[in-house]
Amino acid sequence: MEVFILLAFGLTTVAIVAFFLKPYWDWRCSCSKPLESQISRTSFQCSPGELVPAPWKAPEVVLSVVVPAYNEEYRLPQMLDETLAYLESRGGATSFSYEVIVVDDGSSDGTYAAALSTSRDASLQHGEVRIIKLLVNRGKGFAVRAGMLAARGQLLLMADADGATSIRDLERLERALGPKEDAPQIAFGSRHHLREEALTKRAWYRNVLMVGFHFAVWILVGGSVKDTQCGFKLFKANAAKQIFASLHLYRWAFDIEVLILARILGKSVTEVPVTWVEMPGSKLNLLTGAVTMLRDMALVQVLYAVGIWQPSVL
Predict the structure, then answer these.
(1) What is the pTM of this model?
(2) What is the phi/psi pair of residue 199, to 5°?
(3) 87 vs 117, 161, 173, 291, CA distance in Å?
(4) pLDDT tens digits, residue range 265-306?
(5) What topology does CATH give the domain 36-305?
(6) pLDDT, tens digit (0-9, with 9 covering 90-100), for 79-107
(7) What angle do CA 219, 222, 228 make, to 5 degrees?
């Protein structure tokens, strides 16, 4: 009987350790491969090494919009239509140029085809849509990383495929970064100002998870940014390239590592209120998502503290 108890205890311990270290092994398995080898196809022609340009290469457009998409066949077209219409309107009166980079995170539906069809139907004069499809689903953080490293803009915007935040809020983030040398280099879109309204509308268990998550972020990371998880963030090119070249977390908690890396690299962050509408069809399971995000937040702090993870040198 004691042997079975010890065996069960040992197997349980191994399972817990394996679960805790999973983000580390995911990173180890991917960092040994070039990013290009993890991409199945793109909508544009590129020569070897062009997909991830050198970090010091001069920007070719004013703005890059990176859209991670996983099984977004139905929500993505509307988001792209609204985004492209807005960006085209900005290009009419100025020298504004842009690119929208959709990164299909190994979707099992028609996400790639939907993005391709939308881009072909749009009449674009000031920008283009570039689509990257990953071989397998790697996580939102990995998809954003792939798009950011391939981006060619002076400013790089991360925007969710559901369109929960209006693309017009980009102007708020641009003003927050500003032209001055001492201006912030990263702007986090924030829904914190909507917190009280959200608490009254959401189910009690969602509120418990949200409050608990924010408390865990405050304990593990600090409270300078109230909303780390809003999928609407703007980066100056140099900050984006350094941070996403160094990213290790590939799932939902990658925003936390972005904030940690910004601090390590000396990139200042500002938080900007944005509009936000809760869209149906979220891919995040609240319970499992909360557990894995807590694990990832704890692990990233430990691995940076002991020096196993460090920013990449560009």
Answers:
(1) 0.89
(2) -65, -35
(3) 18, 16, 15, 38
(4) 999 999 999 988 876 666 666 667 778 888 898 899 899 999
(5) Spore Coat Polysaccharide Biosynthesis Protein SpsA; Chain A (3.90.550)
(6) 999 999 999 999 876 789 999 999 999 99
(7) 105
